[in-house]
Automatic annotation (TrEMBL):
PANTHER family membership: COBALT-FACTOR III C(17)-METHYLTRANSFERASE-RELATED
Gene Ontology BP, a term: methylation
Organism: Pseudomonas monsensis
Domain Tetrapyrrole methylase: 314-524
Signal peptide: none
Keyword ATP-binding in annotation: no
Species lineage: Bacteria, Pseudomonadati, Pseudomonadota, Gammaproteobacteria, Pseudomonadales
Gene of this entry: cobJ
Protein name: Precorrin-3B C(17)-methyltransferase
CDD domains: Precorrin_3B_C17_MT
One Gene Ontology term of the molecular function aspect: precorrin-3B C17-methyltransferase activity
InterPro entries linked: 4pyrrol_Mease, 4pyrrol_Methylase_sf, 4pyrrole_Mease_sub1, 4pyrrole_Mease_sub2, CbiG_N, Cbl_synth_CobJ/CibH_dom, GbiG_N_sf, Precorrin_MeTrfase
Enzyme Commission (EC) number: 2.1.1.131
Every Cobalamin synthesis G N-terminal domain range: 51-129
Pfam families the record matches: CbiG_N, TP_methylase
Length: 566
């Protein structure tokens, strides 16, 4: 079931009042208003289709105040892809109709009923089982897992056809439902954590009520867990989490096993043996040992977040140049799981919107090392932290600062943080792609900023790179505090390149108001460039030709020297 905060998307001013009423049902939800059409929304978006698809791909439930058809057409291209399936609803702009469209297993009907209650109308529920029984049997609450969706659908059809049902085991959420219950019924809903082959007339639901205590010393932890559960006749589907001693918090084995089994990994204080570990993790439950591991089986689903603590995570992410389509999916997933977001305010804003439970720590651009240390302190305390950079985090950005902070530290808690660097499309590559392929052969990337290195080394590198006939990509080409450096850099390059050498200037690439200009080294002057510009200078082989749309293609051929024949 989806737990995340929905987004309310509106297209016109007339919908704002209804959107505010829906917001009373979901106080954390933000209203996204179309730029130029809506005044006073919480967030402004530029393109409806892009925004809706992005929210969908981020698994954010969507409440769109517009015609159902528009929503369907917009999301249609994504529906065949495997992946996120959040709840999607269309609501009439005057609040008179609430139509659940997608995400039956994401709790869309529950949302439709809640919104409809808030608007004092009736939700347009079309799911027969749900209409008849007042609950979707195929969508048990979190903490429970349906054994088999297809079997479940058949089971619900049987009930719709008039069969009665009895409930075995604890299913508190079904007390409210209007199921045709009969203690003598042939059909049964069975809720339990034991290994069981469902009978044809049985709907199996597993409570996630089992924790397995593991140790990094075991080989193939995931298989050992499966074997121990099997030996103890406990269903794998009931596994809620793995637990281990906090002395093993940095173990890659355990991390991989948890990933493979698709369950969280929690850490508790080390104990004399593995049975004691399971007991310490889930006090007051029955513990059995099997296959060298200890299994704690509770009566009810486990509250995993209250068991021990998680291993903290720190991801240094690259947003790409700006446009959401140029952000890698791993970064999107990381943004969704983060508890804390650190970075220069502009980039944090670019990475959003964030949920209310995600803490934003915005800082000044210059405080890199402080920010890196702050990130480790949070992650070492078990938080899931992201440090945001634009473009790629390894290119004149936060990844190196984060690693330097770690290298300087001898705090074992910092070193056991789950640290990962997630790449992004760097500004030079995004700019090059729009211009054609100016970096199609060997090239050299430089920052012209002398804040962190002496100007003399920049001059030396420029001179040698230009002499070596590398195409050049300049980051941080100029700023108010560094007004003369670019002019000096261009003089050095001009010693080795003809004035006709193609130059590409990309400004705010992938962001609103982006501009791309093609010029030549002879015509380039520093006043055409600012700190939001990427400067690409061709090599001796870089050439240009007219595009059909009147613009210019720039490319550097793959060969060098004599053009190969054929
Ligand atoms: N990590 C970033 C670069 C940070 S240095 C990356 O990989 O892209 C900052 C410089 O990058 C700016 O001064 C500018 O030269 C360039 N830059 C960053 N984003 C840009 C964009 N969207 N368009 C053009 N240049 C950009």
């Amino acid at each position: 079931m989806t737990q995340s905060t929905p987004a309310i998307v509106i297209l016109g001013q007339a919908s704002l009042a209804t959107a505010r009423r829906i917001q009373q049902v979901y106080p954390a939800a933000q209203i996204h208003g179309l730029a130029g059409r809506v005044e006073g929304a919480d967030l402004v978006y530029q393109a409806f289709g892009e925004t809706l698809r992005e929210l969908y791909q981020q698994d954010t439930p969507i409440i769109a105040l517009c015609a159902a058809g528009i929503v369907i057409r917009t999301l249609a291209p994504l529906l065949l892809e495997k992946g996120a399936e959040p709840a999607v609803l269309a609501v009439a702009e005057d609040g008179s109709a609430v139509v659940p469209l997608l995400g039956g297993l994401g709790g869309v009907n529950v949302m439709a009923r809640d919104i409809a209650a808030g608007l004092q109308v009736t939700a347009a529920i079309t799911t027969s089982g749900e209409l008849r029984f007042g609950t979707c049997l195929l969508n048990p609450p979190s903490g429970y897992a349906l054994a088999d969706l297809e079997a479940g659908k058949r089971f619900v059809s049987d009930l719709l056809a008039g069969h009665s049902v009895r409930i075995e085991g604890a299913a508190p959420w079904l007390d409210q439902a209007q199921l045709p219950q009969d203690p003598q019924a042939q059909r049964a809903i069975h809720v339990g954590s034991g290994v069981r082959v469902a009978r044809a007339d049985e709907l199996l639901i597993y409570p996630r009520s089992v924790a397995v205590a593991v140790s990094a010393a075991v080989d193939d932890v995931a298989n050992a867990v499966r074997a121990s559960l099997q030996q103890a006749k406990v269903a794998l589907q009931s596994l809620a989490c793995l637990v281990a001693a906090d002395s093993e918090i940095a173990s890659a084995n355990l991390r991989e096993a948890a990933l493979e089994l698709g369950v969280p990994l929690r850490f508790v204080a080390a104990q004399p043996d593995i049975e004691a570990l399971a007991r310490a993790a889930v006090p007051g439950t029955a513990v059995v040992t099997a296959n060298g591991l200890a299994i704690a089986v509770a009566e009810q689903p486990l509250q995993v977040s209250s068991i021990g603590r998680p291993r903290g995570r720190l991801a240094v992410i690259g947003l790409g140049p700006g446009a959401a389509e140029l952000m890698v999916p791993a970064v999107k997933a990381e943004l969704a799981r983060a508890t804390d977001v650190l970075g220069y305010e502009t980039y944090v804003r670019m990475a959003g919107p964030f949920r209310d439970d995600q803490v934003q720590h915005c800082t000044d651009n210059r405080e890199e090392m402080q920010r890196a240390r702050h990130a480790f302190r949070l992650a070492a305390a078990g938080r899931s932290v992201i440090v945001v950079s634009s473009g790629d985090p390894g290119v004149f950005a936060m990844a190196a600062a984060v690693l330097e902070a770690l290298h300087e530290s001898n705090d074992p808690a910092w070193h056991s943080v789950d640290l990962e660097i997630l790449p992004g499309v760097s500004a030079s590559l995004a700019t090059a792609a729009q211009a054609g392929a100016p970096l199609g052969h060997d090239f050299c990337v430089m920052s012209l900023s002398d804040n962190l290195k002496p100007w003399s080394i920049i001059e030396k590198r420029l001179d040698l790179a230009a002499e070596a006939d590398l195409a050049l990509a300049f980051y941080n080409p100029i700023s108010r505090a560094r007004p003369w450096q670019l002019g000096r850099a261009l003089e050095i390059v001009a010693r080795h390149r003809v004035p006709q050498t193609p130059v590409v200037l990309g400004r705010d690439i992938g962001r609103p108001g982006q501009t791309l200009r093609t010029t030549t080294l002879g015509e380039l002057t520093p006043d055409q460039v600012d700190m939001r510009t990427m400067v690409l200078i061709g090599s001796s082989t870089t050439c240009t030709f007219a595009r059909a749309d009147g613009k210019t293609w720039v490319y550097t051929p793959r060969w060098y020297g004599e053009k190969p024949v054929g």
